[in-house]
């Protein structure tokens, strides 16, 4: 059975869990990372020398890097659905998966500052710079979604998974955001998916 290592409040673990759930896969999840430890044990480091989560093991095949995990699971179990069969449509979805890390970089100081750092230790300047950078990116996404239901066109694909996880943090962080109707409509569409509700749109910790 598929095994997924990673704590559920990690944005990158959420991506793997969301993909597995969308594909209806049976899997076992093992808590790992931060307060759970595990990632520094010799056994884990043998699987993932980065000492990060998520890591998966599928029939003896070990894989890390969350977006690659999503690509792998989608291609294995969801070609023609989560993973478009047409090469260009697939590349379009993959482009947005990679772009999600651009969004994550912009949001890092905001998320860590506001959610995981005590008030007296916060770097207000870094938080504000990140907030402004994330707004510029969210505006780009808003323009892209002007005439699209999902990031890669009319259907939900693996492309929506990493971006959806990153934008969830943006939407739920206590920051000032401009009104972006296309992003909000797309986010509401994601909100109708059981797997998104179960693992992604939960309080930030
Ligand atoms: N690019 C990697 C980044 C993985 C990563 O940074 N994971 C974080 C959680 S989001 C982590 O393992 N942090 C240390 C920990 O949880 O102990 C991926 O997408 O899988």
Question: What report would you give on this structure?
Answer:
The protein has 205 residues and is an alpha+beta fold. A hairpin with a 2-residue loop joins strand 3 (55-58) and strand 4. The two termini are 29 Å apart. The chain has helices at residues 11-22, 42-47, 66-77, 87-115, 124-144, 160-172, 181-190, 194-200, and strands at 2-5, 27-30, 55-58, 61-64. Helix 1 packs across helix 6 (160-172), helix 4 (87-115) packs antiparallel against helix 5 and helix 4 packs parallel to helix 6. A four-stranded mixed beta sheet has the order 2-1-3-4, covered by helices on one side. Glutathione binds next to helix 1.
- Rg computed from alpha carbons, rounded to a whole number of angstroms: 17 Å
Largest sheet: 4 strands, mixed
Identify the bound ligands: glutathione
- Average predicted confidence as pLDDT: 98
Oligomer: single chain
Fold topology:
Blueprint: E1 2-5, H1 11-22, E2 27-30, H2 42-47, E3 55-58, E4 61-64, H3 66-77, H4 87-115, H5 124-144, H6 160-172, H7 181-190, H8 194-200
Parallel strand pairs: 1-2
Antiparallel strand pairs: 1-3, 3-4
The structure holds glutathione.
């Amino acid at each position: 059975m598929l095994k997924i290592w990673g704590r559920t409040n990690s944005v990158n673990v959420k991506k793997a869990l969301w993909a597995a759930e969308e594909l209806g896969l049976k899997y076992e999840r093992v808590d790992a990372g931060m307060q759970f430890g595990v990632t520094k044990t010799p056994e884990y480091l043998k699987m993932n020398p980065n000492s990060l989560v998520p890591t998966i093991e599928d029939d003896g095949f070990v894989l890390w890097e969350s977006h690659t995990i999503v690509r792998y699971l989608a291609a294995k179990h969801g070609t023609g659905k989560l993973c478009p069969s047409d090469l260009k449509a697939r590349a379009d979805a993959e482009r947005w998966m990679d772009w999600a890390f651009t969004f994550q970089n912009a949001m890092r100081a905001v998320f860590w500052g506001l959610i995981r750092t005590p008030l007296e230790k916060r770097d207000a300047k870094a938080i504000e710079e990140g907030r402004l950078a994330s707004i510029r990116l969210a505006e780009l996404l808003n323009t892209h979604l002007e005439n699209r239901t999902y990031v890669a066109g009319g259907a939900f694909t693996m492309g929506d998974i990493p971006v959806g996880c990153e934008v969830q943090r943006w939407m739920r962080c206590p920051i000032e955001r401009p009104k972006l109707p296309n992003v909000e409509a797309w986010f509401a569409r994601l909100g109708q998916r059981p797997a998104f509700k179960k693992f992604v749109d939960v309080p930030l910790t």
